[in-house]
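Dear colleague,

Thank you for sharing your sequence with our group. We've completed the structure prediction you requested, and as agreed, I am returning the results in plain text so they can be pasted directly into your records. Please verify that the sequence below matches your submission; if there's any discrepancy, let me know and we will rerun it promptly.
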Amino acid sequence: MTFSKHAASIREGEKLPGTVRISMSFLVVKSFKNSPVSRIARIFLIAALLLVPDSAAVRVCAQTASTVIRVDASQPWREPGPADYDLKFAIAPNGDTLGLNARTLTLNGKPWLPVAGEFHFSRFPRAQWEDELLKMKASGVNIVTAYVIWIHHEETKGRFDWQDQRDLRGFAQLCAKHGLYMVARIGPWDHAEVRNGGLPDWVMKQGPTRVNDPTYLASVREWYGEVGTQLKGLLWKDGGPVIGIQLENEYSKRGAGAGEEHILTLKQIAVASGLELPLYVVTGWDNAAIPPHAVIPFYGGGYPDEPWDGSIAKLHPAQVYAFRFHSRVNSDTKTNPTGDPPNASAADQSSLPYLTIEIGGGIEDTYHRRPVIAADDIGAQVPVMLGSGVNLYGTYMFQGGENPDGALSTLQESQETGYPNDLPIKSYDFQAPLGEFGQERDSLRKLKVFNYFMNDFGTELAPMQVHAPESTPDNPADFSIPRASVRSNGDSGFIFFNNYVRGYAMPVRRASQFEIRLPSGTLAVPRHPIDLPSGSYFIWPFNAQLSGVTLRYSTAQMFTRIEDAGLPTYYFEALPGIPVEVALDAATVKSVVTSSGQVTREQNAIYVSGVAPGLDTSIDLVSTDGRHIRLVVLTQQQAEDAWRVRIGGAEHLLITSAEFSADTDASHGRIWLRSRTTSQIAFTLVPPPAAPLKASLPLTAADSTAKFATFSAEAASWIDPFEYVQTESAGIAPPVKIGPALDWRPHGVAVAPDAGTLHNAAHWSITVPAGSMSGLSDLYLRINYTGDVARLSAGGRLLDDDFYNGKPWMIGLKRFLASQGPSSFDLSILPLRKDAPVYLESATPPEFAPNGQAVSLEGVTLVPEYQLEIDSPLR
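Please find the predicted structure tokens below.
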């Protein structure tokens, strides 16, 4: 026991006390006690272990150490107290009631753990809003958060533009149509990587901003008044979807007319403008000004990388992968012992629930720093933040976009306008789960698994209290101690675990077992220690109530729940490298029938072990009170490919590798499956449909059992010639300029090239024939290139741009193709200089020519997006 305790608390390369190393040596020798190894051999073994370097001793010991993660959750559950907030306008005309206490939001009196996703409507074509909202809803989002960016609507003083993709009212109405709640983030200052943080240029020229200056406040009154007019009749009190507004953003000014005084003034103006809502929120990080009783802080989790950082090298491990037991804004408890921001006391943190609005769903590349985000970079944050006590999970961005055209200037953040970073002029893709053109990324599926879990089990999770393990890492860079948390209510709860950190290899946690002290005693999960792989992260239930059966624990993650002809079916996700074991309380189970694995009984528990994940596998239970329950363990890929749908009034899981969206709540519902990899679209329905399916393409039944049915359809293959030809060769790109230093960033960073450097770019002409979209849902231009900045234009108008990061550039052409005749585009690529001070995370560094430049076009292809539409009638 001494060995495992010390081995679990030492980082690789850190020195061990000599006495600890001796105890390790004798522990190893003790294992030879009853073996034929001679006494002389044992002496030599002791000497060898004492002579090895300290770091080597740690590595040797770590390979044989067990990992026991102890958590004391035996304290009585504490009823949450009242929230320190003046809640008004909380009852909708139909009687639905929003509320909150010190720990959770509530909906109609029940704990509510909603999922929020950021979507900037003014950065996306209006014609495609509905499809994107349906994608968000299908992936488990309940609340749409949206900046309402002042400069997008009043670029010229007195000229408000609420038309087309700037139509706030139309966007809110679509949210209402599809049962999505909305939080409007109305500024006046938003940031959002937009010009002036969203303040129009004319506001900047008037005088002081973001303080109680009379001229500034007069303009804010007009702005809030316009927003109030747009949302009239769409607020919660009116039966509408808008449940809250955010005032300002990342606001930490102090002094006369600033700080809490300014936030209170903004709230007064908002209420006077008709914006009477239950939730008035502010962002809670960066030493934010948070006037008590009047507003609710929405926190951020952080981002997988920090492209605003001045470094052009790999950064230290990000905070988003370490649990927060002492603070809602900081996981680095070693450098910040209290863990609390200057404005947040322990009392503040216990009087309002832990709600978030900005947990990174990706990151926007800046000119000087260009990280490439992977799906697990996003997925691994979820158990960390939920395990830290989060009771509203808000992803920023969930839906990428692009800046609209400005009448007076471009609308991106830039160093030229006094802001810290240079962003692309048009693209705000953010490497988000839903990309700039609506493309679904792998990170969407990672998030969707957790979103479904929150949708289905959030009522149980939300009231649960957080318990830290006995040992926790010193800081986000400490990999020596496993990262875990427990949330519980009495004897039931969830284990949260993360062994993933972006850009760093985490150790395998050998022979791991959780020991959780509960009011009724200690629970070991699993019953026998197992290895937890490097890169794994999960949420495991314990003592969960499943329709009359008590699930003692599962080493597969709870995913979702559906009713199949009155049979409640609980779906779990198996994780690679972790054997599946389900433990049940024998006192609640009358019978167990499993199609995979072994059933054993030990004392008061029933164990189903060796379960092979898959659609054919099920564990059928009958509770002691006669209820039937089914447990199904899906593979990780099946869970990520599974979507909840209703067909003919019945609930199903639809499993497909194709991109998915659905509107199955409409009177004549639809499901859309889209593919850019193949013209064949396949899917599986669990359970099988009760009646034949109707679809836009002929369906072929590929496989069918009592548990599931598989179908496929073949779209007409698409072959359409197109042309691209180089029209200009690249010149010599000018040296990269360096911007000014800032008080928080002591050295300047690279400045993006201005439009005047375009004559140094290489140019290609691309022609797409008329009618190329026929039979397709979209047509993508895939550009494989090497360079610095790439731009796509038509008729002299910039359509989209990209900072090279080693990934192919994908552009959805549906919004850009001419309605008649062929469409012509100009592609320009500015060479990347070898001496450019930019951070490229690409696995394959660019090859530079003898002139010190890299510029090439490896290929341009048109990628068709095929679509299958399936009817999903309510009955």
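Summary note from our side: The radius of gyration is 29 Å.

Kind regards,
the structure core
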